[in-house]
Amino acid sequence: MTPALRIEDLHRSFGPTHIIRGIDMEVAAGERHAMIGPNGAGKSTLFHLITGRLAPDKGRVVLHGQDITGLPPYEVFRLGLARSFQVTSLFPHLSVFENLRAAAMRTAGCGHAFWRMLDGYGALRDRAEDVMLQLGLERRRDVEAGSLAYAEQRALEIGVAIAGGARTLLLDEPTAGMSRAETERAVTLIRRVSEGRTLVIIEHDLGVVFDLADRITVLAEGRVIASGPPDQVRGDPAVRTAYLGAAAEVLH
Amino acid sequence: MLAPARPAIVRLQPGATLRAALPWALAAAVAIVVPHLIAGGFGLSLLCRMGIAIVFALSFNMLLGQGGMLDFGHAVFLGLGGFLSMHALRLADGGLWLPTPLLPLAGALGGLLAAVLAGWVATRRAGTAFAMITLGVAELVVAIVLLFPSVFGGEEGLTGDRSAGPRLFGLDYGPQIQAYYVIAAWAWFAALLMWLYTRTPLGRLVNAVRDNPERVGFVGYDPARIRMLVFMLSGLFAGIAGGLAVINDEIITSQAIGPGASESVLLMTFIGGIGTFWGPVLGAVLVTFLQVALSTITDAWLLYSGLLFVAMVVWAPGGLSGIILAHAPIIRAGLGGRLVRPYAAVLPGAALALLGVVALSELAFRVQAVRNGGSPRPVFGVAVDPETALPWIVPSALFLAGAWLLHRLYPAAREAWQEASVAAQAMPNAVPAQAAP
User: Fold this and answer.
1) Is beta strand A198-202 parallel, antiparallel or unpaired with respect to A215-220?
2) Closest alpha carbon to B116 in B81, B83, B88
3) Which of A129, A77, A75 is nearest to A100 (CA)?
4) CA torsion, points B335, B337, B342, B346, in degrees to nearest 10?
5) Fewest CB within 10 A of the end CB: N or C in chain B?
6) With an 8 Å Cβ cutoff, is A116 touching chain B?
7) Between B176-197 and B40-67, two packed helices, what is the crossing angle to 10 degrees?
8) CA–CA min distance B408, chain A (Å)
9) Measuring CA to CA, which residue among B398, B400, B389, B394 is closest to residue B367?
10) Strand spans (E) along A187-228
11) Is residue B114 a contact partner of residue B137, using CB atoms and an 8 Å limit?
12) How far apart are CA A233 and CA A78, in angstroms?
């Protein structure tokens, strides 16, 4: 079966700094795949390379058998891949509802229409309302995204990523900065929306990682140092020395 | 945890369409009645200018307020639309069947074509780069216009006769009142289209592009493409304004394209407020009035419009519509009375400071008159010699006294406003600020 996402020998430097040093990995369709690794390992950069925010110096990114290397973000999205950002990236002067509606427009078939009123797209409104309910933001429907509390913005960040209903979802530290309760709520949401889809998630909270992931890839210094089911990664000595260190007791 | 029951989502509030239609019906009624309430051809031509300015400013705000695109050369679209309309008018004078009321269609085409060319370069970039490119394009177009006098009439421009073309509805559109109704009808219609556009996918996507172009890419849209389409539509509507200007003036010169006209639309739009759809309408009406009224009573009117602009940018960046929006909930909650006293306390200081500024500006312009060998006109009915000290000391003192009073009393007014808005929000029946559905 064709993997949802295949990355072949990916490289990227910034000036003299070689950040991504030859990454090969595969994510099977329908899998929940977590990426972990110490700060500076290149996880976010890898996401940028996959989603077209950055172009790789070398290597290929293949989505469901189709080469998407170097495509601009909007084309990558149209091929069924959506993402969220580690640093919240919303439309600050649009309301919660409008943020979600804008995120769902492409898949709802709005195109660039300026001859048809938005009220005419019933399915689009339903979709935005539905995601809003799932996020628990329905009471904040008409509040500008820029005025939301931090945790609400993080929830909306996930919402904007999932509203378009993409087959493959990349979430970059979706629970960063959330409280325990908020994290649980977010994980429940992520589990539900990734049902029947492919999920790649960067996450620092190892509790979340081992709870959610079918497979885990560990990145360090721009390379994959381990990849496999949680149990295998948990026991991998290279991972323990290179990454887990002090965090190792969490695993027991 | 139980999944929350899906609340009943109001599909279309009964009467929502009616409520949306009301301002448009009202605007139409005002436009029909108002020429009969004011006397004289001067008032009528002022109204015509306002109608043209409304379309122009609304088209400008499609870029600035709604799309975050600061176009320093917006008059290019009005101007080129106007020139194409003028050629159409001259063809009509020569026998082509094109009644005067349809000239703005030629304007729309001219504006659109100009925007396709300019936008192809400008909309690839956003922010400062976009603004710089539009500035360059505007310079380029002015140079080209002067380079081809056979097409654009050189310094004198082109003239036509709006009454010489074919008749439509039995009218020849020569009398100013007929021209007024053509302009008013077009302004109303163009404004309605621009408003409807804000409720379409493109009209909302451009708000997203304004807020965060990068994220727009990750929800499946090319921000540069959205900017381009909106730029074209904006050029089209500015071109309609150009066609209306040709109907009104029966002459168009390179000035219509120049930086002065581009500055003027920025001034209007900003003073009216870029944060609402209707703000630019207020700005267009007010600034047109000031430009016409002030230019008849003082030589310093450009200075005043500059001062007004700076004052708005510094103290009321939301413009007139921003001020109105900041007070609407307070007045709706019936708390407006709390503001009367603190606001009234500010007035004397503001009046004094304004008086001082005006007197100083007028004096400055008198110096010029005296140097040129003339005798200065009196300032506020007082004969003055601007080359002596006393006429400068008195207004300076007035200004300083006013500024001091403002400095003392303004914080109290501001605090009163803050308290009143908090109180208005806390009212049980407070209407939450609704973003458009």
Assistant:
1) unpaired
2) B81
3) A129
4) 110
5) N
6) yes
7) 20
8) 32
9) B389
10) 198-202, 215-220, 223-228
11) no
12) 33
CA distance A133 to A126: 10
Please give the backbone phi and psi of residue B400, each rounded to the nearest 5 degrees, phi first: -65, -40
Six-digit token pair at A149? 């509390």
Which residue in B7, B200, B229 is closest to A116 by CB distance?
Answer: B200
Alpha-carbon gap, residue B382 to B211, rounded angstroms: 53
| Distance, CA of A53 to CA of B270 (rounded, Å) | 34
Closest among B24, B82, B62 to B258, alpha carbons compared: B82
Pairing of strands A17-27, A5-14: antiparallel
Question: Which range has the worst mean pLDDT, A125-134, B52-61, B129-138, B144-153?
Answer: B144-153
Torsions phi, psi for A8 (to 5 deg): -120, 115
Looking at residue A88, the DSSP 8-state letter turns out to be: -
Query: Are the CB atoms for A160 and A103 separated by under 8 Å?
Result: yes
Residue B204 at interface with chain A, using a CB cutoff of 8 Å:
yes
Mark yes or no for CB contact A92/B207 under 8 Å: no
**Using one digit for the tens of pLDDT, what is the confidence trace for B375-426?**
777 777 777 777 778 888 888 999 999 999 988 888 888 889 988 888 888 7
Measured between CB atoms, does B437 come within 8 Å of chain A?
yes
Please, where are the H alpha helices in B173-300?
176-197, 201-211, 213-218, 223-249, 259-272, 279-297
Q: pLDDT for A171-197, tens place per residue?
A: 999 998 888 888 998 999 999 989 989
The ipTM of this complex is: 0.91
Predicted model pTM: 0.89
The Cα A106–Cα A77 span in angstroms is 9
CA distance B97 to B89: 10
